[in-house]
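Repro:
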Amino acid sequence: MIVLEGIVKGNFKIPYLLFILINAMILINKNIKDIFILVIVFFLILIQIFVIRENLHLQELILFCDLMLIIYCLTNKRYINILKEVFITNKKILFIINICILVLFLITFVTGYGWYEVWGGRQFRGVIPFPHDACYFFAGLQVNFIIFYNIFDKKIIKKISFIAVIIYLIFSLFTNARAAFIIPLFSTLYFLYKVFYKKYIVTYFLISIPLSIILIMILFGQIDMHFLDEIPILNKFISLSKEGDTLSSRDIIWNNITYSYEHFTINDKIFGKGTEFTQKLNLMEMGRKLWAHNDLLESLVAIGYYGLGLYLVSLILLLKRSGNLLFLVVILFVAFFNGLFVYPQIIIAIPNFILMFNLYR
């Protein structure tokens, strides 16, 4: 699926295919709880199609439903055990496939083919159509290698997997997708902690904590390091901080949306104004068709109390099934400052993250 989207550069409707596959898995397994969630999601779709027709953006609606179905249904213990068995049973072929994908991205990184001029700078995205998409792809592929590190016994495979995790962190750094970068950064630090915590726990903290603090200070422009201007994500943080626009106009977007929300009717607040409302509003106010860049705000305005309630409960489930509070904090950060359900790349990878946490329990 990842290779397919890379090849066709996003022209193939991944959200719809993903929706069909998730529904098929749920119906085949015939679990009553999962089918009940499926009914709730279909009820949401029917409301948006037949009641909120004016501002319907079907692809964004389907992506929201994909995220809900994956978290509610495909991250429970039964499905994660199936995913684990798939990885273990087919680990050799899956490892080879992931290595081939890594080599492809390395070639595009070294040759310059995967570098593009975006947002007034040069960013790396390989064969992926957009920097944020690329960063989420890299995060998902990175987690695959963390899983390989755990399920393989051969030292050479473990070393290759370790190197691959670091390489995908570097790829992500050069995408210039600031909020999305937090996920591969978290995965790397979590992985390094689990690898070294028994023998080198003191060394790990002595190195990782100062480096993390320095990186954050650099990102927010608190440390002036001109030679780092060549790294797009750092350059963007520094330049926007100097301009007083660290949030890239997100505060303006949020203010426009919240002001509009104050004038919603009761019906609008319960069922939302439609998944294209925020884009139309921002087009009118800012001249650009942008979504809210905030999942909680987007859910509330587009899908109403109904959608926001589903989203908040899904976060509680994510915490319960991952068993990792810091992971939830990272997800909340990304959801608040960028958004998750408009990116199928990270939605697909969520069960793999849950499997990663389970392997380290």
